[in-house]
Design a protein that fits this description.
Order of helices and strands: HHEEHEEEEEEEEEEEEEE
CATH class: Mainly Beta
Structural class: mainly beta
CATH architecture: Sandwich
Number of helices: 3
Shape: globular
Helix content: under 10%
Strand content: 35-45%
Largest sheet: 10 strands, mixed
Oligomer: single chain
Length: 289
């Protein structure tokens, strides 16, 4: 997530690079498809959310983990939510109905006040860290984001490690979609890389001239050894040269954050419970070379 890496970069004295983004974007886009050609792609992973298979640490089984690689008590970006687990906390931020996953953020209930590190909101995160990862290909989610100041929904990719290397700023990371609830017609994509040593972040903002919280949209990224290419409803919106440290398979992450350095806190107009809905998540391998 963009602001997480910005915060870490500032804390560690790194530099976020954005000055040459426009030029690099234009150069990269010259050689990539402007739309997604379905005939080139073979499905390698599909989650249609007819049910929700949560990871169980005791059995070592399940598709979706309900926390990041670090412990739940570690709060990043000065965010105001705590990511809860249905089994551990007795309340679920996840629901599935008619093939739609909903991640719900809400004010912390009294029953959990002493168990969520003092956070005023509870919400959910899902990662396929223990269930699926892939190097190169097409990764996408068909999702509807929530509206409201302080709501920060995201669909992103992180490298898969048996054990996360020391320091949470280890990258690469591909942010396929980040939405700030007060920006009704804009979403964000970002690459984060350590290819030159210090953290570099390459952000792009996309004004799509649609109120994205009103309907489902397809957020896709195509990653190959040459470029990372983002698509909105199958149309190219940005492209960037693949950093040289983008070499490991990546896994999916879906989350709904509340507050933090980037979106700011909710205001009186922010409606809770807030809902981030996902129809499906899929991955593909390229059959066209």
């Amino acid at each position: 997530m963009l602001d997480m890496k910005k915060s870490i970069a500032i804390a560690l004295g790194f530099t976020v690079l954005a000055g040459t983004v426009g030029l690099m974007q234009a150069q990269a886009q010259n050689s990539v498809p402007k739309t997604i050609n379905e005939s080139c792609w073979l499905e390698s992973f599909s989650e249609d959310f007819n049910s929700l298979d949560l990871w169980d640490a005791q059995t070592g089984k399940g598709q979706w983990k309900t926390s990041y690689i670090w412990d739940r008590q570690t709060i990043i970006n000065n965010e105001e939510q705590f990511y809860i687990d249905p089994k551990e906390h007795g309340i679920s931020p996840f629901s599935v109905s008619d093939g739609i996953l909903t991640i719900t953020a809400d004010k912390t209930p009294k029953a959990l006040k002493d168990r969520v590190s003092g956070q005023p909101y509870v919400s959910g995160v899902l990662t396929s860290e223990n269930g699926f990862s892939q190097q190169y290909g097409r990764f996408e989610a068909y999702a509807k984001v929530p509206a409201g100041r302080g709501l920060w929904s995201a669909f992103w990719l992180l490298p898969s490690f048996d054990q996360w290397p020391q320091g949470v700023a280890v990258l690469p990371e591909i942010d396929v979609m980040e939405s700030l609830g007060h920006e009704t017609q804009t979403y964000h994509t970002t690459l984060h890389t350590n290819q030159n040593g210090p953290l570099e972040s390459h952000p792009y903002s996309h004004n799509v001239r649609k109120t994205i919280s009103e309907a489902f949209h397809l957020y896709s990224v195509v990653w190959n050894p040459e470029t990372v290419n983002w698509y909105f409803d199958k149309r190219l919106v940005a492209s960037h040269k693949t950093p040289k440290d983008f070499t490991k398979p990546v896994h999916f992450l879906l989350n709904l954050a509340v507050g933090g350095n980037w979106p700011g806190s909710p205001d009186a107009q922010t409606v809770f419970p807030a809902k981030f809905s996902v129809d499906y998540v899929r991955a593909y391998t390229n059959q066209c070379g």
